[in-house]
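Researcher: Please predict.
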Amino acid sequence: MLTMDKIHTIREMYYEQCKSLRQISSELHLDWKTVKKYVDMEDFNEAPPVPKKKEECQSKLNPYKPFIDSWLTADLKAPRKQRHTASRVFNRLVEEQGYEGSYRLVATYVAAKKAELKLDKKQSYLPLIHHPGEAQADFGYADFIENGKLHQEAKYLVLSFPYSNGGYLQLNYGENLECLLEGLKTFFEYIGGVPTEIWFDNTRTIVTKVIKAGGRDITERFRRFSEHYRFRPVFMNPESGWEKGNVENKVGYLRRNELVPVPEFSDLQLKNADLLTSCDKDMEREHYEGRGLISELFKGDKEALLPLPSVPFDTAAYLTVHTDKYGKFTLDQGAHRYSTSSAFCDRDVALKITSSEVLVMDADMHEIVRHRRLYGAEEKESMQWVPYLSDIARKPRSLFNSGIFEMMPASMQAYMRACESPDRGRALKILAELTDRTGFDSAVKTVDEAIRFQAHDPDSLKSLYRRMFSDVPDLPPLTGGNALPEQKVIPFNTDLKALDSVLERREG
């Protein structure tokens, strides 16, 4: 397969420069069939990777990059002669943060970061003309409450259309590539098409490096996403948010009009669906330049949209990690810890990561357990204790001291306390079997029913489960009537020899 950059060149020459397949084949010295293959390609999903035996090493500098970024950003307001050099950054990292890596690693990163933060002292502002079908994207932050839990300074993605001044938003738990791709995909599917181009900041979620003369190194997954949907990504000059002023204004407008007071709901997905329809209603107002209703102008945007591809894009990230001796692994530079099961201690597991979930899978990509994805800079842990039930069943005496007992539902805790000590291990084993069979909820409902009948023995658990969840057909009662033959009574006395003679005659 060709590189994504080569594929992008082929498609750009065909779709934007209107060159024929043979012209492209000749100019790029490629086979005509190869050119046709990538022009017609509609699916740019990347196949989930095969789990690796060893986790890829991370740069030793990663934990220290936030410090470097903050120092260099502060330099923008400092006198030229009092700004950090790479040597000064290295010395501060060693003295203040205990950095043990090489100077070359620091110098390389500082040079790239300085290039990213460089300002043009003689900026001029020109009015920008936007055509129908063009869009701008950006994140804002706001609080929301889901199921009673406050998500402070969470993120929301906004997609605005400068031509009509229409726009949509979706709430997110954070600002990562999964949130961005899922949000954009939702917008595309809701409006029934894809913007011809979308303007972005130079966020690290997408851009890995800003190159001189306006070039950008883009992450592989985002490149695949943009090729899959055929839109052209446009990136702003560093520190030039005014270039996409429409979405900057829309971020504030939607916060004030859709997220005040602080939204409170039970399900984020349902709330996001409501926000899309609410944004449609908001377009029934006059354009700020008096050009008519936004909803009418937005029809022009929709007419210019690219068609949706025939194959949906998989926005999840796929990783391979190695677990520790407790069957746990970490993400986000060690800040967030997740459990698997005791059967996967000190082993490689595959991960499928979405904006809201972390699915843990074995080498055959079968699900082991799933977690809600953790967010925030502070250290957190997500522990799914159900896969450890079988282990606790083998060591029932450790139940109350394992930490797992406190994670159990209240009804299950009460049941375990009421169990006789010899029965507790059998009960745990049965609960593990019931969970494997029809899910943990069915096991909890069986325990609730056992408590209601004050039945604390393991056999009662099995019986109650069969009655509640097994598909046992209700048989109709037997009817008497004349269909049954009459019984033939063979009289005999206490002499067994007489009975033997009767049986012998019947056998004969």
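Model: The longest helix spans residues 421-438.
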